[in-house]
Amino acid sequence: MKRGGALTAKLAGGVSLAVLMAAPAYAQEAGADTPEGEIIVTGIRASLERAADIKREAGQVMDVITAEDVGKLPDANVAEALQRVTGVQITRVFGEGQSVSVRGLQQVRVEVDGRTLLGWSARLSPPENDQLGRSSGLDSVPSSLFGRLEVRKSPLASQAEGGLGGTVNLVTPKPLSFKEPTASLRVQGVYSENSDKFEPAITGFATTKFADDRIGIMIAGEYQKRTSVTQAFERNNFLNRNYAAGGDTIVQPTPALLQYEQFTVDRSRLGLNGAIQFEVTPEFTLTADALYSKLKTGRRQDFFAFRLPTGANPVTDAVVEDGMVVAGNANGTVTTAGQIRNEPTESFLYGLNGKYESGGLTIEADGYYSKGTIDQTIQIITLQAAAPVPGAFDFRDNTIPSLTLGGTFDPADYASYNPANNGVRSNRLIGLLEEWTGKLDVSYETGGGVTIAAGVRYTDLHARSNAYRSQVTPTPDEIEPFLNLVDPRDFLPDIAGSFPRGFLSTAPTFDYVFTRAQAAEPNPDANGRSTLLPNLQRDYDFSERTLAAYLMVSGEGEILGMPYKANAGVRIASTRLSVDSYVNVGTVSTLRNDKNRYTNVLPSANIAFNVTDNFLVRVSGSQTMQRASIADLAPSTFFNATNLSVTGGNVNLKPPISTQADVSFEYYTGKSSLISGAVFYKDVQDFIASFVTTGVDLDLDDQGRELTFSRPENLASARIKGFEIGIQQFADFLPTPFDGLGIIANYTYSDSEDNAGFPLVAVSKNSYNLVGLYEKGPFSARIAYNYRDEAVFEFSEGRPSFIGARSQLDAQLGFDLTENFALSLQAQNLMPKKSATSEYSNFNPTALNSYALSERRFSVGVRAKF
C-alpha cells in the first residue's frame, strides 16, 4: 500500500508545532456598530465571546458554537464540530463524525433554523436501511453553511418536540444581519495517509444589501472530496450454541462469523445555501431560503469470511473465558468477495418565513418542505470453498482474532473454490423522505413585562423504501475475468495478527453485475423503479401526520432582590401513522396496512437567577419525547440468506418519554471566559432497543438453519443521572506574549441503568474534551483531545454488546498573512488506534464483534475575506 511518506512527514512536522485544535470556527452575523475607541476583538476570542453572549441570554439550558467571520471552520462536518461541546458525544463512520448523543442519549433532533433536515448517512455494517430516521445524518451536511450551532439541552414549549437527549439547531446566516457586503473564499488540500491522495475542499460565501438596505441576498457553498481507507473485522456476534459435556448439554456463547474486510471509500460532499430577505416595512420582514446538500459515498471492498457451523458441538477444543468461547477449532464455511457499493444521497430544504413585530405583538408564520433521497446500489461477486474448511481461531492477545486454516484449502487458488457456490448479486435500495410543515406563532408582551405566546404546527411526513435484489450462479468462464488476488502486504497492513491476508477475491464492475443479475431475475413489472427483482421484504410506504399546539408564558422579575427570567408552558402533540409493508411467508408476500395513534402532553419550565451580574443559576424541568425511527416502525421482514439474519420493524412501538430535571450554573469570568456546570436527571419510559434472539423459521428458510432475529422493542424504563462541568479561559493575567494562552475543557458523567440493571444504549459513563489554544496577533494554534468510554449498542440474546472506549487528537495552526488573507494547517486523527471503533459482547473485550481502524488526515488551506 502506498504511504506518501515525504508529504506525511512535512505536514505532520508542521502541525506538530501547534499548541491546539479546539472549538471550530463558524460563520456569524455582523454585530452592532463599534463605539469609537473600543478594541475590536476577532479570531478565537470573538467566537467564544459571541457564543457566551448567546448562552447567557438564552431562555433554556443551551451551548453554542459560533465564530467571528463567515466560512472559517476546521471540521469537515457538523458532527465533528459538535464533539467539542460539553455533554456531546459523537459516533464515527469511515473516520468521520456522523451522529451525536447529548448527555448520553442518541435520540437527538436535528434542525436547520427550527426546521427538520431530512437525509441519510453511510454506514459500515448492515442493515443498510436502519439509517432511515427522522433527521439527517450530520456527516451529510458541510459545516460552513451555518452561522452557529445550538445544542439545546432543555426544551421550550414553543419548540418542536422530538429529542430525548436534546435538539441540535443549525442556524444559517441572514443577509440583513450584515453591516457591509461580505465575501470569503477558502481553498484547501486534504491528504489522507493510507489512500495517499491529496484532494480539494473549497468554501465560498457572499452577501450584500441594496434598495436602501431593505433587501439582502446571501449565498454560500462548499465542495469537499476525500478518499480514505478503513481496515476492519466485523459482522461477528457471540450466539448461544449447544455442547455435549459429560453426558450433559451446556450452552455457551460462541462466535458466529470471522470476517476480515478492507474498504476504500470515495466521498464527495456538496452543499449550497441561499437566502433572500425583504424588509417590507420596519415591522414586517419576509425571508425565503433554501439549502441543498449532496453526499456521494462510493466504496470498494474485499473480504475474507469464515462462518462457524451451527447446531450441536460447533467447536472442538473450545477455550472458555468469562463464559464465552474465545478459542477453538471448527469446520467452517469460507467465503471471499469483492464488492462495490454506491449510495448518493441528497437533502433539500425550502422555506418561507414572515415575521411581524409591532409594540409588544409578534406574529410569525413559517412554512417549509424538506426532502431526502437515496439510490443505493451494491454489486458483489462471491467465491465459496468447495467444502467446509478446518480452522483454528483465537480471540485472545490480538487486536482482532487470529485464524489459521488447515487441510488442503488454499485461499489464493481458484481450484479450492466450488463454482456451483459462486454468486453474482446486485442490490438496489431507493429511498424517499419528505415533510411538509406549516406553523403559526403569536406572542404578546404585556405592560408588566409578561409575554404570552401560543402557536400551532402541522406536519405531514412521508417515507418510502423500495428494495430490489437479483442474483445468479455464474459459470467459471464468466468469473475468471474478475478474479483478483489480494496482495497480503496491502490487506489490513496496520492491524497485527495472524489471519488470511493473501486470498482470491473479485473485482466486480457495476455494468457486468447489474446486467447479469437482472437478466437472471428480471422485474416482472415493466413500470417498476428498477429492472431488478423486487425484494419486498424491505419495502414499505410510511405516512405520519402530527398536529401540535403550545401555550407558554415568560417574564422576568425579582425574588428577594434577585433578578430572574422564567418561562413555563405546555405542548400537546397528536400523532397518527400508517404504514404499508409486506408479510413474507416463504415465497409468498402479502401487502398489509398497520396503523398507530397516540397523543402526548409535554410540560416544560425554565428559570434563570442572576445571583450576581456574572453568576447565573438555571433550574429546568420538562418532559420530552422521541418518536421511533421510521425503519423501526415498518413491520416488513428482511431475511439475509448470506448472514442468516432476520430484521424487521414494529409498528406498535410507543414513543419513549423522558421526565427530566436540570440545575446548572454559569460564571462569566470575562467576555470570552466562562466556568459552567450542571446536574441532570432523566427518567425514560418505553425505551427502544434492538433485541436479538436465535431460532428456526421454516417459512423464511426451508433449510431449517438457525437464524438470528433482530427487532426493536420498547424494552425497558431507564434512568440517567449525571453532571457536567466546563471551563473556557484565556490567561489575560499573564505578561505578553503568554496572555495569548487559553484552555477549553469539559467533562460529562452519565450514569444510566434500565430496569434489568444494564446500562442504557449509547450512553458512555465518562466523556471529556481538553483543548489548549494560543492566539496572539496574526498567529493562532489549537490542539484538542476528546474521549468517551464504552457504551452499550444492542442486546444479543439478553446480553449487552458494547462499543469500546475511544479518543481522538486533532491539531490546527493559523496565520493571518494580511488583513484579508490567512493560511491554515490542520491534522486530524493523529492517534488512529486510539480512535478505532471496537464492538464486543457482554462486558468482555476479548469477545470481539467488530473493529474498524481509520487513518490520519492532514490539510493546508488559504482563505481570503473581503
Automatic annotation (TrEMBL):
Keywords: Cell outer membrane, Membrane, Signal, TonB box, Transmembrane, Transmembrane beta strand, Transport. It comes from the Bacteria. Residues 397-830 form the TonB-dependent receptor-like beta-barrel domain. It is found in: Cell outer membrane. The keyword Coiled coil does not apply. InterPro entries: Beta-barrel_TonB, Beta-barrel_TonB_sf, Plug_dom, Plug_dom_sf, TonB-dep_rcpt-like, TonB_rcpt_bac. One of its GO terms (cellular component) is cell outer membrane. NCBIfam families: TonB-Xanth-Caul. This is TonB-dependent receptor. It comes from Sphingopyxis macrogoltabida (Sphingomonas macrogoltabidus).
